[in-house]
Design brief:
The chain is an alpha+beta fold. The protein is built from eight helices and 32 strands. InterPro entries: BatD (IPR025738).
């Protein structure tokens, strides 16, 4: 009996020591999830092994992984080692599923994990998975469209401000627009953003940093419910992971996240019909109106300018100015339209004008009748009318047109009776001095002989330039150099424009390098890790030194955006980028 007890004790002790030595187990982020959520599965071991074999993941689709992480630390002289293979899964249907056994070989022995049952329910309102980097980025990154007014009048200005909110828990390294809104039912004007500025604010009551990406002024052109299309961005987000470096600092992983400002709907009110003037042309805002001439006294056949001007704040570019009406004795030309309009967050402001050139034909007095301009005032929400004063033009010298001016009953035109005078044909020249015309012939002329000899002289020139062109086409090496230089200039032209502006220069430089890789290696932005780029360049025949220079340029762009840099340093980086692109284009 004692021998049996001793044997069992030794057996259990041996098994405990074995179990303490090797540990291989599977862990899941949750055992119950919605069909629209993701599941993270970690296979952890405390000793390094070989020939890891994952299960088939029946009932799920692998959307990420395997991601491998290794932790190796010393605490109080004791070494702790951990190696993890991580997978991200999406359920394919509702039901109960089993994460089957994974296998690995450690020290010649095969170890297996225990099966884990997972229940998949219907879709949940708000999917959550705190261990998923993609979910962490989604929860801490928000693109918001702020609309100044949701119930404007027709042709009343509203503004849309797009803000990108970023939580302090993550950081954003770069972004680009995927889809820009088209504003099909609006007249739109983008406000120039000279420099992006990071500011502190709140989102849903929590502290956030935000940057204003775009400001747009909109004037609705239709009534009813109008949809403002969303703005979509592709953002590179640095998310903290569960791994740490040798100093205990948390390591970050980069996630490419697509965010969009949700569609916004505004309800546009029609302008009131009560009190609407018959000559209303759609002006909405706060305006002043005047009609003026540069002179009121002149002689016949001289010219004067009559100018109609509307100034103020409102939809200045979206309505027509009143037309100028003049008496028959004034010759009127098509007006020259002029706009001095600026656009800011309050809408359009400035002035528009039509300038008419008028030329009187006879002496006399010509009244230019009063002109009316009507608009809808947003402050009082009523229609207003402004009427100019009558202007009288006095033509002192010129031919006599006969009777005096007679005004018509409708006060819109003025008529003059024109009578014939005895000297009405005084402009016709009766005594003409005619000269004979000598005929010239083309045959045997200087032009005749030139047309015969010039083609003969041009033949040697054609042969010479044709030979030079053929030599250039046969120069394969030279053509590659010229093609590489042209490609470098094409992609780096935007960076060259921003020399002196450090932030914009390096953003444009990094974008140029990425676009070049897309065109040359046919890869997407999500695949542009430095090691992947280095490997692709090496596979395509580029020298390791050239690949290293290219990677160095990318790192320089990332570093230089946050550290001071001189114009000479920017010029050096620009020249280096041109040479590196040219080298890669010749080698790859």
């Amino acid at each position: 009996m004692k021998l049996k007890l001793i044997f069992l004790t030794l057996l259990f002790t041996t098994m405990q020591i074995t179990w303490a030595q090797v540990k291989f187990e599977a862990k899941v982020s949750k055992k119950k999830l919605g069909v629209n959520e993701r599941l993270r599965v970690d296979f952890e071991m405390n000793k390094d092994g070989d020939n890891f074999t994952p299960p088939s993941f029946s009932g799920f689709t692998v959307v990420g992984g395997p991601n491998q992480s290794i932790s190796n630390s010393w605490i109080n002289g004791k070494r702790t080692y951990a190696k993890t293979f991580s997978y991200f899964l999406e359920p394919t249907a509702r039901g109960s599923f089993t994460i089957k056994q994974a296998k690995i070989e450690i020290d010649g022995q095969v170890y297996k994990t225990l099966p884990i049952k997972v229940v998949v329910t219907g879709a949940v309102d708000k999917p959550k998975d705190g261990n998923n980097s993609d979910f962490v980025a989604s929860e801490n990154l928000h693109l918001v469209a702020e609309v100044s007014k949701g119930n404007p009048y027709l042709n009343e200005a509203i503004t849309v401000v797009y803000k990108l909110y970023v939580s302090p828990r993550i950081s954003v390294s770069n972004w680009r627009e995927l889809d820009s809104p088209k504003y099909s039912d609006f007249w739109s004007q983008a406000i120039d953003m000279k420099q992006l500025k990071v500011e502190n604010g709140q989102y849903n009551g929590e502290p956030y940093r935000y940057v204003i990406l775009r400001k747009t002024v909109l004037y609705p052109q239709k009534t009813g419910k109008l949809n403002i299309e969303p703005l979509s961005l592709s953002v590179s987000v640095d998310v903290p992971s569960n791994r740490r470096d040798i100093f205990g600092g948390r390591l970050y992983t980069t996630v490419n996240k697509t965010v969009a400002a949700g569609s916004r709907t505004i309800n546009v009110k029609p302008l009131p019909t009560q009190g609407k003037p018959d000559d209303f042309s759609g002006a909405v805002g706060d305006f002043s109106f005047k009609v003026e001439t540069n002179k009121k006294e002149l002689d016949a056949t001289e010219s004067l300018d009559a100018k109609i001007t509307v100034s103020g704040n409102g939809n200045l570019k979206l309505f027509d100015l009143p037309k100028l009406t003049v008496p028959n004795g004034l010759e009127q030309y098509e007006p020259q339209h002029s706009e001095r309009v600026r656009t800011n967050l309050t809408g359009m402001g400035g002035s528009i004008s039509d300038t008419y050139t008028l030329v009187p034909q006879y002496k006399g007095k010509y009244p230019i009748p009063a002109i009316s301009f009507s608009y809808f005032d947003l402050k009082t929400q009523t229609y207003k009318r402004i009427t100019s004063d009558e202007i009288v033009i006095d033509v002192k010298k010129g031919p006599d047109g006969g009777s005096s001016i007679v005004a018509s009953n409708d006060n819109s035109t003025n008529k003059r009776q024109v009578t014939q005078t005895e000297n009405q044909f005084r402009f016709l020249k009766l005594d003409a001095n005619f000269e004979s015309i000598q005929r010239t012939y083309f045959f045997k002329s200087a032009l005749y002989w030139a047309s015969l000899t010039v083609p003969l002289l041009a033949i040697p020139l054609f042969l010479f330039f044709g030979k030079k062109r053929q030599e250039r086409l046969n120069d394969v090496s030279g053509n590659r150099v010229r093609k590489a230089d042209k490609l470098a200039r094409k992609y780096l032209s935007e960076a060259k424009k921003n020399l002196g502006n450090q932030k914009e220069f390096y953003i444009a430089m990094e974008r140029a390098l990425h676009n070049y890789l897309k065109a040359k290696l046919h890869i997407q932005t999500s695949d542009m890790s430095k090691e992947h780029i280095r490997g692709l360049l090496k596979e395509r025949g580029a020298d390791e030194l050239v690949a290293a220079e290219f990677i160095s340029l990318l790192e320089s762009c990332e570093f230089a955006r946050y550290t001071p840099s001189s114009t000479s340093a920017m010029q050096q980086d620009y020249d280096k980028a041109s040479k590196v692109i040219a080298k890669i284009d010749k080698q790859v």
